[in-house]
């Protein structure tokens, strides 16, 4: 019995030691950078996993969901993305225009100015719903993931390209348009 136990302990120790030695030699080099789409991705798991970031970066899948980006020129300020967001991290303020103000790259007519278009990436849960509902496909998830910051407020991304003066001017134009419309009705 004692020989059997000793033999088992010896074999177990050898197995554990061989695993340690294997990783010891493997740790002399970094793990090969491979795209996850590679057929042999799981055959190359030896080596140091930690990468020397930012000098080195791990390859990421093309369909990964990372930082959101909005092409504001193609946005019709419809608010659908904000309504679809389950955590309310998109804040949009629109200003109506008395007339069409242009077209997006897919031909959609723009009638609203984006006075405010903020996305709080600290609250975002990367579900991608906002990108699915966007009629002009101007809000997308990019493969950019390294915008870390020590201040939470830095993670509120602003996409509106309007200045305070422009916002005030457009609001005044809309107020005047409404007033003229009312006055015309009274006549
Ligand atoms: S990815 Fe999801 S949580 Fe993030 S802003 Fe879009 S809808 Fe909201
Ligand atoms: S759904 Fe698209 S077009 Fe509509 S407000 Fe959001 S980003 Fe703009």
UniProtKB/TrEMBL annotation:
GO BP annotations, alphabetical order: aerobic respiration
Family matches, as Gene3D superfamilies: 3.30.70.3270
PROSITE patterns: 4FE4S_FER_1 (PS00198), 4FE4S_FER_2 (PS51379)
InterPro entries in UniProt: 4Fe4S_Fe-S-bd, 4Fe4S_Fe_S_CS, NADH_quinone_OxRdtase_chainI
UniProt keyword list: 4Fe-4S, Iron, Iron-sulfur, Metal-binding, Repeat
GO MF annotation: an example: 4 iron, 4 sulfur cluster binding
Residue ranges of every copy of the 4Fe-4S ferredoxin-type domain listed in the record: 66-95, 115-144
Source organism superkingdom: Bacteria
One CC-aspect GO term: membrane
Name of protein: NADH-quinone oxidoreductase subunit I
């Amino acid at each position: 019995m004692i020989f059997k136990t000793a033999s088992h302990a010896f074999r177990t120790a050898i197995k554990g030691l061989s695993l340690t030695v294997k990783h010891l030699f493997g740790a002399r080099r970094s793990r090969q950078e491979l795209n996850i789409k590679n057929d042999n991705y799981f055959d190359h798991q030896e080596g140091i996993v930690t990468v020397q970031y930012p000098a080195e970066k791990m390859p990421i899948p093309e369909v990964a969901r990372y930082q959101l980006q909005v092409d504001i020129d193609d946005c019709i300020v419809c608010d659908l993305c904000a309504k679809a967001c389950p955590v309310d991290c998109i804040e949009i303020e629109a200003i109506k225009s008395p007339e069409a103000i242009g077209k997006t790259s897919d031909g959609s007519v723009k009638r609203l100015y984006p006075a405010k278009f903020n996305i709080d990436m600290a609250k975002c849960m990367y579900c991608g719903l906002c990108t699915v509902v966007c009629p002009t496909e101007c809000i997308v998830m990019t493969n950019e993931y390294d915008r870390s910051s020590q201040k939470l407020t830095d993670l509120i991304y602003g996409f509106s390209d309007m200045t305070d003066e422009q916002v005030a001017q457009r609001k005044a134009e809309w107020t005047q348009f409404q007033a003229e419309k009312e006055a015309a009705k009274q006549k």
